[in-house]
Amino acid sequence: MPVSSLRSSLGELPAAQAAYRCAVAGRMRAERWGLALDEALRTRTGLTRPRGAATGRILAYHSIGTDEWGVNDVRPADFERHLQVAVDDGWTFATPAQVLAAPELRQLAITFDDGATSVLDNAVPVLRHHGVPSTMFAVSGWADGGHDAGYAHVLDWAGLARLEAAGVTLASHSASHPDFGRLDPAAAERELVESRRRLETMLGHGIDEFAIPFGQSANWTPEAGAIASRVYRTVYAQAVDTRPAGTIPRTFITQIDRPLIFRAALNGAFDNWEEWFLGPR
User: NodB homology domain: from which residue to which, for each copy (predicted)?
Assistant: First the structure.
């Protein structure tokens, strides 16, 4: 058996998956705290890094109170704290289109990936109360019920309709949430086209935005990018300086992000940082 096949087979074992998740979470925690502390020190001493003219940010959340999702989950109390920190620091909230139209303004757009039920239960009431717009990138196949056990906490079509009725904009996150970095062009096209078709059929209106699953530089290919540009108006990554060509940057927000780290994210401390992948996920 080739080494790559053996590594892939071992990576599917529950023990290997658990070890992988622990390693990713540990490395993420160390790196984000380290970069945040460095940012705080530079701010206090006036040694701030030079940045480009763009200020506005599009934030990428996942679940808000789904413990099983690990580092991708932000506790409801921390999510509310993030909003308050942003307001205290002079940010206003806008749609992704508004951020892109005026990148020099201190604006934040809130987006969510995957369609977690906890977004409807825990995030939407807070967002509606404060009049904050948001966007959900949903996986069409998961809304159909075709998800793994670890992703049982996702909205079906009725749930997505309630989300939309609450004022959340819906967009595509593929048909089955694959790693596009591992797909051939034909498979990538099926994922992109089928997701849009299914979302438009079930929601009754056009869909022209897409967020790359996993969203890091290795999770996309030039071939997928060329196809996506024909299918969607806008393609979002989950990285900033390291994002694939032709994509819109989003700043990944994690379970680890207490106010110090969250402020560092808004200040660009993680713009050159990517989530770490060991292999099979």
Answer: 106-281
pLDDT given for residue 48 in this prediction: 63
Strands 107-114 and 92-93: parallel
pLDDT surpasses 50 at 276: yes
Separation CA 152–CA 154 (nearest Å): 6
Q: Which two tokens stand for residue 185?
A: 């062009």
Mean pLDDT of the chain: 90
Distance CA 277, CA 203 (A): 34
Quick one: average pLDDT of 101-106?
A: 96
Angle between helices 3-11 and 14-45 (to 10 degrees): 90
CA distance 189 to 248: 20
Answer for the pair 145, 205: CB distance below 8 angstroms, yes or no.
no
Q: What is the arithmetic mean of pLDDT over 155-163?
A: 98
Give CA–CA dist 164/257, Å, rounded.
27
SS3 102: coil
Instruction: Answer yes or no: is pLDDT of 244 > 50.
Output: yes
Report which of 96, 87, 83, 153 is spatially closest to residue 120, judged by C-alpha positions. 153
Chain position carrying tokens 């996150």:
173
| Residue 151 pLDDT grade (very low, low, confident, very high; cuts 50, 70, 90) | confident
DSSP 119: I
Instruction: Report the DSSP pairing between strands 234-236 and 251-252.
Output: unpaired
